[in-house]
Design a protein that fits this description.
single chain; globular
Length: 282
């Protein structure tokens, strides 16, 4: 039995304690659009509610966006605003699925709702990366093997560096600079997959160091999904290994669609902590 098969066979249900505290200083009242709630696909796993708390207390209005993510709208008053959530979510303890037989679909056979994820987007410039993608991966086997080759390449091409993170960095920037954080790994992998006619979408959520050595300060994580064999499959260019305990928040074309906060006015981020750890059995 392989290590992967043993891990899957030995999967055990677990409870994950997750949440965040994000603090802004607003010089004036500022409308905000937030994507911080657990994705609808995981709502039934919540053991305690993931309510978005605000201090001071302000009304929160939620809606589902075009990608099926839960978005929250608030009007932050001038002064200090603290956003927080603290909850328990159940997880089956399984690592990411492995499906090497998953085939790559011809573009003409893709479902209409999937075609969008072949197109270039704000942070994933397929036009600037297409020639490089075909030169690098044109000889790889289509399907799972090709996506894994792209994931391997991105994992080794980018050196992880918090100091080199910036909000305007694109997939092309990450490729030329060779430095970045998890969102840059995801953006580059998504862009290269799309260049190779593999639908790919960007994901954000909680991924604590559960089942692996603890590394660094906890943050929200970014990974990606590709459409192979009639289903969306999870890949992670930053970690490049099957992981457990992912708690999805949102999916979209790239980070534009799943930004944790869009602030429509001056708001200085002054505090940011994220938690995702295994909780004791109930």
């Amino acid at each position: 039995m392989s290590q992967r098969e043993a891990t899957v066979a030995g999967a055990r249900p677990m409870r994950i304690h997750a949440g965040f505290e994000i603090v802004y200083d607003c010089s004036v009242a500022v409308p905000m659009l937030l994507t911080l709630s657990v994705h609808p696909s995981r709502r039934d796993d919540l053991e305690t509610p993931d309510w978005l708390r605000t201090a001071p207390l302000v009304p929160v209005r939620q809606y589902l966006d075009g990608y099926g993510n839960i978005c929250s709208r608030i009007h932050a008053p001038a002064g200090r605003l603290t956003l927080s959530s603290d909850f328990i979510v159940r997880d089956d303890g399984r690592i990411d699925d492995y499906a090497p037989e998953a085939v790559q679909h011809p573009v003409e056979d893709l479902p209409d709702e999937v075609i969008l994820f072949l197109l270039g987007s704000r942070y994933c410039e397929t036009d600037r990366l297409s020639a490089a993608a075909w030169a690098l991966f044109g000889s790889t086997l289509p399907g799972w093997a090709r996506v894994q080759a792209i994931t391997d390449y991105v994992h080794h091409h980018i050196a992880f560096s918090h100091a080199d993170a910036r909000p305007d960095k694109t997939a092309y920037d990450a490729w030329t600079e060779g430095l970045g954080v998890c969102r840059d790994y995801a953006h580059l992998a998504v862009a290269l997959c799309r260049c190779m006619n593999i639908p790919a979408r960007y994901c954000t959520g909680y991924l604590g160091d559960i089942g692996v050595p603890v590394a660094g300060i906890m943050d929200f994580s970014a990974w990606f999904e590709v459409y192979l064999g009639g289903a969306w499959r999870t890949f992670d260019a930053r970690n490049n290994m099957p992981r457990m305990a992912r708690v999805l928040i949102a999916r979209g074309r790239d980070a534009v669609d799943v930004a944790i906060a869009n602030t429509f006015g001056p708001a200085e981020l002054v505090g940011f902590t994220v938690t995702s750890v295994e909780a004791p059995p109930s």
